[in-house]
Amino acid sequence: MNDPDPFDGISVFVAVAHAGTFTAAARKLGLTKSAVGKAISRLEQRLGFALFHRTTRVTKLTTDGEAYLGACTAALDEIVTAQSALTTHHKKLSGRVHIDMPVAFGRTVLLPLLMEMTRPHPDLGLSLTFSESSSDLLQDGVDLAIRFGALPDSSDLVARRLATQRRVICASPAYLRARGTPEALPDLAGHHCIVGTMAGPPQVWFVKEGNKDKRFTPPQTHRLSDGAAMIDAAIGGLGLLQLPVSILRKALSDGRLVPVLESLSGTDVDVHVMWPRQYHLNPRVRYVIDGLLAYAAQGKLD
User: Fold this and answer.
1) Hey, is 280 helix, strand or coil?
2) How many other C-beta atoms lie within 10 A of the C-beta of residue 220?
3) What is the pLDDT of residues 206-221, one digit of tens each?
4) Strands (E), 155-216
5) Residue 56: its H or E element
6) CA distances from residue 288 to 117, 140, 166 in whole angstroms, order as listed
7) Which of 101, 129, 264, 274 could disulfide-link 207, Cβ–Cβ 3.0 to 4.6 Å?
8) Pick the residue with more confidence: 163 or 133?
9) Lowest mean pLDDT across 74-83, 102-111, 141-150
10) Could you give phi then psi for residue 88, rounded to 5 degrees?
């Protein structure tokens, strides 16, 4: 006797879980409601537990069903990833990918890589939004978003870490000549500092004291909503700032900015790519995700 197909009914189950009703899932899959119901019943019989609480109006996942959905979604994502990785290299991609990213990191680090990524696919278009605020990916129609720091807790989103970057506190040589170089956190009380805004880069700094990372609120002399503008302001001598090293690297290397408080400013920040969870991810979106992960593995996003 042949063993049952372990994938039988899984795509139907995931469709019902995401659609919310058997009727909506049947419509999406091009099946009858009866066929969907039978597929779920066979799957439940094979598993030995109920996947849904069913009433005349509501189809709700059981506790076991929620756990099984997580496992099935992760497995299907891996399958789609493998298929996309094998197929996108052998066909021309077309259409548009909407990517939302922080201003300075997007312009200085990501944009050159995205331009390189699109060259083999001249019909692949990019819609790039540069923003320091956290847009709602689902509501705003964003395919991918690049985010620094802690991520929202959402079952509707998938995230992969691209890099971990060191935060750096720095200022221009002219500013340090005029106001002195701080040697410890208390020294900052006598300094001008450049921070973000409620809808922009952080208004707090992240510092290391001993073996512990902690949040520190510096004097908020200047508040800017744009990371690139913060860098320009620091180069112009307005004060000290703290940002990830990748977007400061050029100004640090040519001496326009100088690191300070290096023993305190060694805390790291993670950089993630996020996208809405979907049963089948569009090949052009998957192509960009895979490309970013490949660049990250090469250290080009550090």
Assistant:
1) coil
2) 14
3) 998 777 888 899 999 9
4) 157-171, 194-195, 205-209, 212-216
5) none
6) 8, 19, 25
7) 264
8) 163
9) 74-83
10) -65, -25
pTM metric for this prediction: 0.66
Minimal CA–CA distance to 267: which of 146, 149, 133?
A: 149
How far apart (Å, rounded) are the C-alpha atoms in residues 101 and 226?
Answer: 12
- Burial class from Cβ neighbours inside 10 Å (0-12, 13-18, 19+) for residue 83 reads middle
Burial class for 209, CB neighbours closer than 10 Å (0-12, 13-18, 19+)? exposed
Mean pLDDT of 143-154: 83
**Contact between 170 and 234 (Cβ < 8 Å):** yes
Cα torsion 230, 267, 208, 251: sign: negative
Tokens 């880069």 correspond to what residue?
201
Distance CA 234, CA 193 (A): 9
Q: Where are the beta strands (DSSP E) in 63-198?
A: 95-101, 124-130, 144-148, 157-171, 194-195
Q: What is the per-residue pLDDT for 253?
A: 95
The predicted model gives 17-41 an average pLDDT of 88
User: The tokens of 1 are what?
Assistant: 């006797």
CB 45 within 8 A of CB 32: no
